[in-house]
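Today's session is about reading a structure prediction critically. Students often jump straight to the picture, but the first step is always the sequence itself: look for stretches that repeat, for charged clusters, for runs of hydrophobic residues. Only then move on to the predicted structure, which in these notes is written as discrete structure tokens rather than atom positions. Here is the chain we will use throughout the hour.
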Amino acid sequence: MIPTFPPRWLDDEVVADYQSRAEHGERPTALAVAVLDVRQPATWEGEREITRHWCLAHFLLDGNHKMYAAAQAQERARLLSFISLDWSIATSEEVNRPLHLLGAGNGN
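Below is the predicted structure for this chain, in token form.
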């Protein structure tokens, strides 16, 4: 998860409010857009167990205060994230693969 601005720009009172809520069981939801980057070396020698690296980066659009407060309270938060196919360096098959493995889209 990548914040869109540094913590020093956050309003301390808003963070404190969300932190208190998190400590009392509230699970705030933040909104993000994600990009999936799937890369592999152009060349390599010998057999390798891992040939590709997957990086899913979530850029916060709304919820910087919520996520920072939850992190400070060491509590959970929710993240609603939309994966951008246009900005991802991954194919639609690669984007759909983990969703398929999780059972998304088939009622599970």
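Discussion point for the tutorial: The chain has three helices and three strands.
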